[in-house]
Every structure is written in structure tokens, then in C-alpha cells.
Amino acid sequence: MSASNRREHDMLRAFFKIHPDYSLCRTLAANIMEGFVTHEHALQLLTSKASQTAALRDSIQASLDKKKIMIEEVGYLLKDLTLDQIIALDDQRFADVLHFYFKYPRAHNRISRPSWFRRRAKRLQFLSALMEESKRRSLSTDYLAWEDLLSLI
To answer: 120 lies in which domain range?
Structure first.
């Protein structure tokens, strides 16, 4: 890994600790490296976004809990589906679920918080299983971004 890539990854890791939105953090780090925005301005934007999210946490959680997936013309709440049911979905619906959990990896408490007695692999089992199923189906997904996201959580 080159020095600039390492610096960008370090910024991404630091930004993700402030606000766990992988896409936003990745974009900000890339924009800093390209000189489009200063590090201070990026931190200000990220801190503002984090405080807005904290203020709206309950309504955001309620909104995420309402996410539905149509299965045989019946809408099911995504939070109620098991991993086996998600894996059994057709490719398009599975890709939708994959995108949702990439954007909101901590939604529906599918991964647990870090703990000294809980191994990392166990905490990330759900997201890892989604990524492996996506690879098995050969879906067009940014696997490097997924692996990077899993390393940040």
C-alpha cells in the first residue's frame, strides 16, 4: 500500500469512528486527497452530520425498521427476516438487501457492539455471510469496499 493510500485509509478509519457512514467517509477522504476540500472542513462536515444523526436517532431507527421487502407480492419487514430467508431471496431483492446493509451496517442490530469477550468474526457473521453469498452469486458488488467496511466495524 502506497503512502498516499495508507494516509487515505487512516483518514477513512478516523472519519468512520466519528460517523459510521462508509460512503460519506470514503468520499471525504478521497476529496481531501484530491485537494477538493480541506481536512478541517471535512471534519466540520462530518461532525455536523454526526450531531444531526444523533439528534434524529429515534426517528432514523423507526424509519429503518419500516424497510420492507416484497416476497411473492407480500411485504415483509426486513428486520424480521432471518439470514436464511434473506439468502433465499432472488438476486434483485438480495442485491437490494445487500445495498441496504452496506449503507446501514448496524441497522436492526444485526451486528453486535465490540466487546473484549466477543470475537470479531462472530460479531460480523451476518454481514460476512451476505458478502459471501453475493460472491457465490457473482453479483456486481464492490467487494473491496465491503471488506474495507468490515475492517472498520
So the answer is: 66-152
Is 90 exceeded by the pLDDT of residue 102?
A: no
Q: Which three cell numbers stand for residue 85?
A: 430467508
Q: State how many domains the chain has.
A: 2
Is residue 37 located within the same domain as residue 70?
no
DSSP 77-141: EGGG--HHHHHTS-HHHHHHHHHHHHH-TTGGG-SPPPBTTB-HHHHTHHHHHHHHHHHHHT---
Identify the pLDDT of residue 38.
94
DSSP state of 113: P
Give residue 112's pLDDT: 63
Q: Does residue 50 lie in a domain region?
A: yes
* CB distance 68 to 75 below 8 Å: yes
How far from the centroid of its chain's Cα atoms is residue 109's Cα? 12
